[in-house]
Amino acid sequence: MYTGLVTEVSWERVFITIRGTINPEEPDWDEERPAIAEKLRQIIGEDYDPQRPYFFLRTKKYGQTYLLSPELSEEGNFSIRINVTEFRDRKQIPNGAFRISVFHGGFDSVLRAVPKIAEQALELSRPFIFNKTEECYVVNVLTSSNEADPSFLLRTYLYKRKRVKKITFRRIRDHVIKVCIDFYYSLLYHLVPHNGKRILLATETRGYLQGNLEAIYNRLYERGLDKKFHIYTSFRRASGGNEGALTWLKLMTRVAICDTILIDDYAPFLNWMTLKKKTRLIQVWHAGVGFKAVGFARFGKLGTPVLDAGHRQYDYAIVGSKALKKVYAEVFGIEEDAIIPTGLPRMDVLFDPKRQKKFEKEFFEEYPSLEGKKLILFAPTFRGMGAKTANYPYEKLDFHRIYDFCGEEYLFLFKMHPFIREEPPIPEECSDRLIDFSHYPDVNELLRVTDLLITDYSSIIYDYAVFHKPMLFFAYDKEAYSAIRGFQNDYDEFAPGKVCTDFDQMEAAIRNRDFETEKAERFLKENFDYMDGKSTDRFIDWFLTNPSADVLSLSES
């Protein structure tokens, strides 16, 4: 048997890491050992190896017992990393007081804790407040009260605020709407035969298909798959906006009759209903993830998802590289095996040289005043908590100084986030060099003619990186943004270009052409497994042949 000692506990967002050591010892006889050993062997399953130590997270009397997957060295050092929001079956660690034990040779021994764990218990515990402060998920790091030999304890609670909710018209209305949606969806789902031949491509953030959805839609038709499948679409502005009853009815009808649903962003309808198990839901996220923290990666901060958010319903999500599987699994609160590294379909066109030449010709025919100039594209993300409060503090920019350093060489184009309604206040006397291009429909195409991208925390960097052109990062509020929104990685290390924290630094970097382009090349290698223009076909082939395909073999093929 082994005994063990927890020596260190640390946190990284929603991940708790528990480290320590185990050592072989001569066992003491335990009358309950055979029954307990059999229960643990059944949990381990057919892969049980009597020579190997196994780790469990369990309650004192084994009422809740879960097999863990630690990293274990030959010297007996172990490291256990747990995502507390996505522990089992897309749910958090359940309420309870848990021990960690090591099982070997028929004996199960609870890990003890070094004294400093008890001393740091308050600092090592975490409260995650969410759902507009209505709920709190608490993970306490503790030790048992046995002073001579304290055991390591992990106590978890999910608190919900207890208060009498007023019966309001809005609450009654929402309840009635939800009941009606459930009834209509369930009724139509059971009335319509499902044969796997209906596909719905849906967006809840814009009034048209764009990005990954558009690329997949077009390619399905190009390959003649509209003859094999019935392909439906739905585009509404439900995220951050309002949609009428007719659009809801149309969407629910298509959701009920379709076998596979592809979405490209946050989809509010998932918060009103639970899809049937036979309906396959695939998130083809429109943006790269790995820079700023989003979804469950910022759990506990204002505006984060509830624990049973619609993200949990995704059967699969696609990603640009195998290295990003862990990131997306954390963001969506789903298991890593559900993340499919096909590459991003919308980026295929960026690798087409014929498309590049054609676009440049058509673009400069439409905007002849831009031809012959170097184009700087300013494309930051928004500030605020969402579409309704989105803004950008234009006072951080000196428009007249931008005009001066542009000179006769550059033009400065503004492409503000679609959520930002306020136009950049370009002075009239600067309008020949400073131009608002926020109206331009496809920012990815605009990147083709961009010579220098200036952004901050936007996922646009993933698309632009493939052009091997310089980037600058105007991050005047880096510390505040990190505190409020959070970053997935160290910002200065991860940013594929020079980071500027004020306007003076940004201006100097442009004048001196100081872009730190070596960071961009490293970024490319880390975030793109494929730059062959075949990601759309790779996704469709996976979709057609084996929806439960081994993602590792797919990535390596």
Describe the structure.
Helices cover 28% and strands 22% of the residues. It has 557 residues and is an alpha/beta fold. Strands 3, 4, 7, 8, 10, 11 and 12 form a seven-stranded antiparallel β-sheet that branches. The chain has a six-stranded parallel β-sheet with strand order 14-13-15-16-17-18. The longest helix has 23 residues, at 169-191. It is globular, with a radius of gyration of 27 Å. Helix 4 (169-191) runs parallel beside helix 6 and helix 5 crosses helix 16 (535-545). Helix 9 (399-406) links the parallel strand 19 and strand 20 (410-414). It has three domains: 2-160, Immunoglobulin-like (Sandwich); 169-348 and 534-556, CDP-glycerol glycerophosphotransferase, N-terminal domain (Rossmann fold); 349-527, 3-Layer(aba) Sandwich (Rossmann fold).
Describe the structure in brief.
The chain is of the alpha/beta class and 557 residues long. It is 28% helix and 22% strand.
CATH class of the largest domain: Alpha Beta
The helix fraction, in percent, is 25-40%
Q: Give me the Rg, rounded.
A: 27 Å
**Shape type:** globular
Low-confidence blocks of residues: 548-557
Query: Mean of the pLDDT scores?
Result: 90
Largest sheet: 7 strands, antiparallel
* CATH-defined fold name of the largest domain: Rossmann fold
Q: Into how many domains do the coordinates divide? A: 3
- What fraction strand? 15-25%
DSSP summary: helix tally: 17
At the fourth CATH level, what is the homologous superfamily of the largest domain?
CDP-glycerol glycerophosphotransferase, N-terminal domain
CATH architecture field of the largest domain: 3-Layer(aba) Sandwich
Q: Structural class of the secondary structure composition? A: alpha/beta
Distance between the termini: 42 Å
The count of strands amounts to 24
